[in-house]
Write a sequence for this structure.
C-alpha cells in the first residue's frame, strides 16, 4: 500500500516486552517494517548500523549500554532517527536526561496499544516534517489511527488498562465523543481523485483546525467511512461552538448535509464504545431533511421526543393483498401516501421514523418474494433492499422514494412494450456509461436526466432491454470490479470497497456476500489459495 517502508527498532532487555510490542500492531499492514528487537543497548547500536531504522523505541534500564547512553550515541551518529523511550514508573529521574538526548516521548510500562499507536503516529509526523513525501507519510499515520481506534469503538469489552495513558497526548479527567456524520461524501471523493486516505486525511485536518489543533483524538471510522470521530475533554459549551465552526469549514469543500452528535461526558476512556453507541442513538433523532444539525446528549431525564409508528398494523394486510393481486398503484399509495412517507420532511419525521417505516415495507416485500417467487429471486431482492436501506442514510427523500418505486415495479413488472431502436440505443449507452463510472454516485433520476428520458420510462426500458433492474445492474458491476481488485491488487478490502463506490465497508460486505455467496474476506482467501 505504501511505496516506502519505514523501519522500527525496539530495544529492551525484557523478552515479554519485546514480544508484546511486536504483536501489538500489525506493522506490515501500515507500511512499517518491524526489525528484530535488540536485547540491550550495544545490540541496538549494531542493528542501527546494519539496518538504519527510522524509529527507535528503547527501554532505559538495560545492561552494557543503558537507554540514555544509547540515545546519546544515536543523536551523535544518526540524528535522523526518531526516538522515544519506554520504562517503569521508578525511572522518572531519567526522563529529563532522555529528552535532552533527543527522545520525543516517554511511555510508562506496561505500554498500552493506544499509547503505542499515538507514539508511532507522532514519530511518522516528525519524519514527515523533513521529508519530501510529507503527505504520504501523514496519510500513513492517519490510516494507523483510523484502523486501530475504529476497532476500539466497535468492541463492547475493552481489556483492562488498554486506554491508560500517562504521556502528554491524552490525560483527560473527563472526555466527550463527537460523531461527525457526512451524509454524502461524493463531492469530496471526486475532489480527491477517489483516494480514500487523502479524503480521510484532509477531512481530519479540517476538524483539527476547527479545534485549533488542541489535544484531542480524531479518526475516521473505517467501517463507515462517512463517520469521523473526535474524543476530547472540551466542555459542552466549547463543543457546541466548535461544531458550528466545523459546519462552516465543511460547507466550503464537502458540500453535503452533516450531522454532529455530542455524547455526554465520561470519566474514563474505557467507555469510548458506549459513547459512540450513545452518539448513534442521538443521530437517529435528527430530522429527515437535507439540513445540518448539531445534537447533544441529554442525560437529565427530561421528556424525550416520541417516536411515532407511521406504518399502522392494518397497512400490512392491505399491502400484502395489493402485492398478491399485482395492484401496483395501490402498493405505491400504501407505501407513500397512507404511511405519510412522501410528506415526511414537511411533517418533521425523525431519521429513525423514516428508517423504521422503510424497513417495515421492505420486510413485507421480501416475504412476498419468498412466498410468491421462491428463493431464486431472493438474493436479487435482498441486494435491492440493502441499497434502499443505505439510501435512507443520505436523507434524500426524492432518491429514497425513487428507489422504492423501482423495487415495486421490479416485483410487479408491467406488460412489455415495444422498444424503439432509439430507446434501445440510449439504454445501451447508459449501461456503457455505468460500466465506466461504476464508482460514482448514480441514480435513476440522474441517468434519466442525462439521457433526456422520463424516469419511470427509462427504468422500465432499461429492465426490459438489459434484463435486470438498474439498481441490480449497478450492484453487479461494482461487485465484479471488486472481485477484480481482490484478485489482482494488494489493496485492503476497505480500500477496495471505497474504490468501487461504497463508503460503508459493512454494507459493501453484505452486498458482496449476497451477490457471490461468500464474504469479501473469504473470497480473498480463496484467491490466495488458488495462487499457491
Amino acid at each position: 500500500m505504501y511505496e516506502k517502508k519505514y523501519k522500527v527498532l525496539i530495544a529492551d532487555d525484557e523478552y515479554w516486552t519485546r514480544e508484546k510490542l511486536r504483536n501489538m500492531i500489525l506493522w506490515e499492514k501500515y507500511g512499517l517494517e518491524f526489525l528484530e528487537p535488540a536485547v540491550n543497548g550495544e545490540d541496538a547500536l549494531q542493528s542501527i548500523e546494519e539496518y538504519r531504522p527510522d524509529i527507535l523505541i528503547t527501554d532505559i534500564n538495560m545492561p552494557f549500554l543503558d537507554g540514555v547512553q544509547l540515545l546519546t550515541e544515536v543523536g551523535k551518529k544518526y540524528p535522523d532517527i526518531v526516538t522515544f523511550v519506554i520504562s517503569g514508573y521508578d525511572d522518572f529521574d531519567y526522563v529529563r536526561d532522555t529528552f535532552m538526548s533527543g527522545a520525543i516521548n516517554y511511555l510508562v510500562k506496561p505500554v498500552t496499544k493506544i499509547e503505542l499507536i499515538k507514539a508511532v503516529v507522532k514519530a511518522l509526523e516528525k519524519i514527515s516534517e523533513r521529508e519530501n513525501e510529507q503527505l504520504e507519510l501523514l496519510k500513513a499515520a492517519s490510516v494507523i489511527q483510523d484502523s486501530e481506534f475504529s476497532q476500539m469503538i466497535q468492541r463492547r469489552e475493552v481489556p483492562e488498562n488498554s486506554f491508560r495513558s500517562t504521556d502528554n497526548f491524552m490525560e483527560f479527567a473527563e472526555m466527550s465523543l463527537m460523531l461527525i456524520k457526512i451524509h454524502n461524501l461524493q463531492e469530496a471523493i471526486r475532489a480527491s481523485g477517489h483516494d480514500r486516505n487523502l479524503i480521510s486525511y484532509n477531512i481530519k485536518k479540517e476538524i483539527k483546525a476547527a479545534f485549533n489543533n488542541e489535544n484531542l483524538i480524531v479518526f475516521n471510522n473505517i467501517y463507515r467511512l462517512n463517520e469521523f470521530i473526535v474524543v476530547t475533554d472540551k466542555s459542552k459549551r466549547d463543543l457546541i461552538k466548535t461544531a458550528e465552526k466545523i459546519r462552516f469549514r465543511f460547507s466550503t469543500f464537502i458540500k453535503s448535509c452533516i450531522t454532529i452528535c455530542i455524547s455526554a461526558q465520561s470519566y474514563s476512556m474505557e467507555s469510548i464504545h458506549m459513547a459512540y453507541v450513545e452518539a448513534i442513538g442521538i443521530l437517529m433523532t435528527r430530522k429527515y431533511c437535507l439540513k445540518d444539525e448539531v445534537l447533544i446528549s441529554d442525560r437529565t431525564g427530561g421528556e424525550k421526543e416520541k417516536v411515532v409508528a407511521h406504518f399502522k398494523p392494518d397497512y400490512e394486510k392491505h399491502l400484502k393483498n395489493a402485492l398478491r393481486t399485482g395492484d401496483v398503484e395501490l402498493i405505491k399509495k400504501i407505501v407513500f401516501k397512507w404511511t405519510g412517507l412522501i410528506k415526511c420532511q414537511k411533517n418533521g419525521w425523525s431519521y429513525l421514523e423514516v428508517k423504521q417505516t422503510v424497513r417495515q415495507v421492505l420486510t413485507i416485500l421480501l416475504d412476498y418474494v419468498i412466498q410468491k417467487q421462491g428463493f431464486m429471486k431472493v438474493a436479487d431482492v435482498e441486494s435491492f433492499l440493502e441499497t434502499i436501506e443505505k439510501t435512507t442514510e443520505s436523507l434524500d427523500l426524492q432518491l429514497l422514494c425513487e428507489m422504492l418505486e423501482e423495487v415495486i415495479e421490479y416485483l410487479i413488472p408491467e406488460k412489455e412494450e415495444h422498444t424503439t431502436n432509439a430507446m434501445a440505443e440510449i439504454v445501451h449507452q447508459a449501461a456503457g456509461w455505468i460500466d465506466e463510472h461504476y464508482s460514482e454516485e448514480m441514480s435513476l433520476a440522474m441517468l434519466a436526466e442525462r439521457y433526456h428520458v422520463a424516469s419511470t420510462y427509462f427504468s422500465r426500458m432499461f429492465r426490459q432491454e438489459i434484463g435486470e433492474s438498474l439498481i441490480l445492474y449497478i450492484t453487479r458491476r461494482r461487485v465484479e470490479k471488486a472481485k477484480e481488485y481482490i484478485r489482482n491488487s494488494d489493496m485492503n478490502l476497505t480500500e477496495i470497497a471505497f474504490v468501487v463506490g461504497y463508503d460503508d465497508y459493512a454494507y459493501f460486505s453484505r452486498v458482496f456476500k449476497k451477490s457471490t455467496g461468500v464474504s469479501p474476506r473469504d473470497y480473498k482467501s480463496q484467491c490466495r489459495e488458488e495462487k499457491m
Summary: Confidence is low (pLDDT under 50) at residues 156-169. Residues 176-296 form a domain with the Alpha-Beta Plaits fold (CATH 3.30.70.270). The first helix runs from residue 15 to 24.
